[in-house]
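Why do we care about 3D structure at all? Because function follows from shape, and shape follows, mostly, from sequence. That is the central idea of this module. The next example makes it concrete: a single protein chain, its amino acid sequence, and then its structure expressed as tokens.
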Amino acid sequence: MGIKVAKFGGSSVADAIQLTKTKEIIEVDRNRRYVVVSAPGKRYDQDNKITDLLYLCKTHIEHNLPYEQVFQVICDRYMAMEINLRVEIDLLKEFDEIKRNLQEGASSDYIASRGEYLNAMITAAMLGYDFVDAAGLILFDEKGKFLAEETNKILGEALKKHERAVIPGFYGTYPDGKIKTFSRGGSDITGAIVARAVGAEVYENWTDVSGFLMADPRVVKNPKPISRISYKELRELSYMGASVLHEDAIYPARIAGIPINIRNTNIPSDPGTMIDAEVDVQKDRIITGIAGSKDFSVIAIYKNGLSQESGFIRRLSSILEDYDIAIEHMPSGIDTVSIVVSNKSIDGKRDEVIEEIKRKLDPGSLDIFDDMSLIATVGAGMSKRLGVSATLFTALAEAGVNVRMIDQGSSEMNIIVGVETKDFNRAIQAIYDAFVPPAKE
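And the structure:
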């Protein structure tokens, strides 16, 4: 077996109890040689994430408010972890340095990054692994752009010197050595970067869920888990609002051809979800998942001879661009085109946009449908499979759902339907029931 990189999220490293679980997971498989950790997350619903508390300290200082009480809460969390795990680290020295930098006006990025930094030190001591700081190894340029190739070379060379290591997630450094954090999914991104740098066989992303589900459990009761999914399918579901890994967290592993395994720290025996470049389509699995988003508007335009009118779509897109309105989808027919936009992007601009479209494009008719939701049914197994569309639309019709828009990509990997928001849950349930056979008793 090759090298495995294991990244543990905030809930997986929230306290000594959770860290003990991560230790057991890592020690079960000695191929888990490189570990990436987040800052401690919430231990219970009313608890605070360490990163949020660190940001709060910075905010207090900026507003000339006392911050010492909040900082002490942070220190107490880490001291309790050190004591309960029976490791010895000079945490007091680290706290003093962070506090001094806070008082001297250190950046928000630096302050926020200390959550991962301290947690990685504790985790390394617990495991007996080397602590390798991400500073100076994960690189950004002066403008804050991540330098992928430079990082891959330097990080790879550095980690070759360590048989086993723990690396803090979430941050790297500018050329001048100052700390720079990733904007979203920071520790997930670090894990993928480390996996690429060491040529890992698999990148394990340990969290508090057992991989991905075929539908939102708040809509569909006990949806089936997704055992395997391709990067392309994941992108489609993610775009439509499914709560999955951010694209930046997938990219380093994807370009290196490294599969990502989403696992549950609390149920380590569960195989979770494997994300890979290509997935063999199972005969009994037509769809991979269903995801949807609410709060859209559809601008439906009819004009006789529209398809023969040169530049119509370009001029329409230009109008929306002038108002900084992104087009989510644009299904079209011979004499029709529908523009799907988010309610947020068109708020306060609606009347002006409509007037300009009428004035510049002279449509035969123009209708707006509000309170629309989009639902994507995704699956590589849908391609070239007879009767998929018929099954989907029959299910919606039998559920009494009126379909206001249809959009199918050329890859035949997804079918997107627009429905009224009041029908959102009913539509997802109907599609799920049509394609997923009930579990056997």
